[in-house]
Amino acid sequence: MKKLTNWFKAFWKDEEGLQTLEIMLIIAVIVVIALAFRDKITTWVKSLLDFGDSKVGQFQTDSGK
Fold first, then answer.
1. Where does the sequence pass through the membrane (predicted)?
2. What is the pTM of this model?
3. pLDDT at 65 over 60
């Protein structure tokens, strides 16, 4: 148990550990935002894909003339 406590203390004091912690917190915030707005994000992506599909279809129809 003492070994684990010493490891946590060393990790907390380590400068690189703080950078890792910051990155982990940023990733956690992004995941929470993605989960909170999951429905809106999926609707937005589907609309982008539908728009792209219609433009590709329109291009194929125009080039076939």
1. 20-37
2. 0.48
3. no
